[in-house]
Design the sequence.
């Protein structure tokens, strides 16, 4: 697959805070790429560097295999942090300005307004919009003129559940059109539902990057119980993939390295003279994975 | 260039605050100009009670002096500050609404952004000068007799002088807008500098406390408003012993424009240096 964005070792420091720390990422065409991290982990700074708003101290990046230039930016639709429009202008006028800058046709304005369910309110001033509508208008402006990439920074921040659902459906629709998406979010659930690739950020560093599907598929935790709990705890430590375990009431929770299926675990224990009374596979969510990764770096 | 102008037009066309302030500016400017003669003569009458030889009434609206007089009144700092505040708002709004960020994200370069604001300033200065020029022409025609009509064109360069003053002054405010980014702060500091700090400096430099110097003439705001230094009032010459200004000197025009150029360069530097 064609590489759309490649970042090499970018860093940005604000005073004593290292906002972005030697960050390298590659995004391929058609990816729905999640940039996941807690608030202040460097997501917005990273996107701001990629969009020419902030100068990086070190490192370089390339859009479409080209060094940074404004023509590349015209092929990208992006919303950073808040929806930024003139409050006294109508949605249509605001979008006309966007279209002018991007050298795009006004004819596309109706399409993006319909796509974001704002067509009925197109001649109302931006000021009169609810927050959800403002967010949708921001996405509409980003989608104007069929960009090759859509960049969204916390698009559901501050929205009610209905608004969140609308935005997510919209993002999935856009992804289905084959547009590459980069989504920054501190919500794991959001990344889990929308993205196929993810980079987890903390303190400006990438902790982990990979396919969301693979991260979620790792069944690294099992809940076990037996009539002979003490023997079970001794035997399980002999398993070649054993990593750690902890007692939890009448059961123990065991972590393994790599992928294991329940059948293999059961037969291993049976061969070692343990009869299980309880065996449950606990799929690790991105959330747990994320928290673990964060803890490891603290 | 045309594209940038088109974008600026969209930003301004339905911006009510801009039109209201610009309208008010023209209203006060016109009112001030039309009342000036009456006010001055009222003062003259007041003084004449105490003077052994009464002073004659002034006339402001005859050709060719009308050009110079209107240029002078329109260049007063209390008047110029109006359009300057409008310019500051047009620039700081972009930071307040964060539309400058969105413009850059959408593929407008920082240079293009600066140029588009400069074009607005230039057009504002051209438009105001044209209005002033036509105003002076009609006022002149209404007051002058045939003798004066013959020398009508002599004072036209003063309108160009006003254009230079206005353009430079607006560039100063443009600089404050980009430097401080915050509407209230930029307006407050610009007003403070223009109306208080620089006049204090001016009188300090002219006072006997310091060595005799010419620096006061080179203070930025002063340099701009002194392109048309005095109104063409003969009484002034008599009372104050001032030489009447014959025309606009290119050197006096060059000083504020030089300040303006330096400020534009600094805006470029600030914009490329700072993060948005």
Sequence:
């Amino acid at each position: 697959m064609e590489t759309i964005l490649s970042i090499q070792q970018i860093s940005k420091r604000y005073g004593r805070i290292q906002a972005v720390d030697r960050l390298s990422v590659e995004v391929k065409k058609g990816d729905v790429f999640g940039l996941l991290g807690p608030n202040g982990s460097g997501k917005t700074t990273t996107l701001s560097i990629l969009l020419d708003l902030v100068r990086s101290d070190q490192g370089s990046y390339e859009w479409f295999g080209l060094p940074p230039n404004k023509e590349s930016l015209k092929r990208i639709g992006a919303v950073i942090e808040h929806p930024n429009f003139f409050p006294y202008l109508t949605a249509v006028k605001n979008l006309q300005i966007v279209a002018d800058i991007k050298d795009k046709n006004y004819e596309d304005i109706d399409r993006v307004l319909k796509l974001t369910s704002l067509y009925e309110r197109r001649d109302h001033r931006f000021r009169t919009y609810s927050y959800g509508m403002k967010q949708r208008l921001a996405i509409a402006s980003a989608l104007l003129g069929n960009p090759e990439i859509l960049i969204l920074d916390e698009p559901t921040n501050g929205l009610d559940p209905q608004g969140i659902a609308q935005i997510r459906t919209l993002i999935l629709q856009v992804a289905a059109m084959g547009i590459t998406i980069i989504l920054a979010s501190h919500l794991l659930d959001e990344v889990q539902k929308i993205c196929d690739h993810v980079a987890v950020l903390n303190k400006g560093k990438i902790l982990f990057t990979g396919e969301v599907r693979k991260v979620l598929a790792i069944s690294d935790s099992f809940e076990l119980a037996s009539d002979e709990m003490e023997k079970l705890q001794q035997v399980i430590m002999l398993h070649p993939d054993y990593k750690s375990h902890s007692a939890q009431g009448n059961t123990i929770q065991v972590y393994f390295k790599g992928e294991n299926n329940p059948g293999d675990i059961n037969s291993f224990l049976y061969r070692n003279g343990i009869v299980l009374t309880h065996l449950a596979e606990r799929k690790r969510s991105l959330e747990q994975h994320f928290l673990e990764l964060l803890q490891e770096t603290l | 260039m045309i594209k940038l102008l088109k974008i600026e037009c969209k930003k301004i066309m339905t911006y009510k605050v801009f039109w209201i302030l610009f309208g008010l500016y023209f209203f006060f400017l016109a009112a001030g100009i039309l009342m000036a003669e009456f006010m001055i003569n009222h003062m003259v009458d007041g003084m004449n009670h105490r003077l052994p030889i009464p002073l004659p009434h002034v006339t402001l609206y005859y050709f060719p002096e009308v050009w110079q007089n209107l240029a002078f009144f329109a260049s007063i700092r209390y008047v110029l500050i109006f359009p300057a505040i409008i310019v500051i708002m047009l620039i700081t709004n972009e930071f307040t609404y964060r539309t400058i960020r969105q413009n850059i994200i959408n593929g407008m370069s920082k240079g293009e952004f600066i140029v588009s604001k400069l074009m607005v300033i230039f057009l504002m200065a051209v438009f105001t000068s044209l209005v002033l020029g036509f105003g002076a022409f009609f006022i002149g025609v209404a007051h002058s007799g045939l003798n004066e009509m013959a020398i009508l064109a002599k004072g036209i360069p003063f309108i160009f002088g006003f254009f230079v003053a206005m353009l430079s002054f607006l560039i100063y405010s443009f600089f404050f807008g980009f430097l401080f980014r915050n509407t209230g702060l930029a307006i407050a500091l610009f007003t403070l500098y223009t109306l208080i700090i620089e006049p204090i400096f001016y009188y300090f430099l002219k006072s006997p406390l310091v060595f005799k110097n010419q620096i006061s003439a080179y203070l930025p705001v002063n340099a701009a408003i002194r392109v048309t230094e005095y109104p063409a009032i003969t009484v002034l010459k008599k009372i104050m012993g001032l030489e009447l200004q014959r025309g606009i000197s290119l050197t006096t025009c060059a000083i504020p424009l030089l300040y303006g150029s330096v400020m534009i360069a600094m805006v470029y530097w600030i914009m490329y240096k700072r993060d948005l």
Notes: The interface with chain A takes residues 3, 6-7, 10-11, 14-16, 93, 97-99, 101-109, 275-276 of chain B (CB under 8 Å).
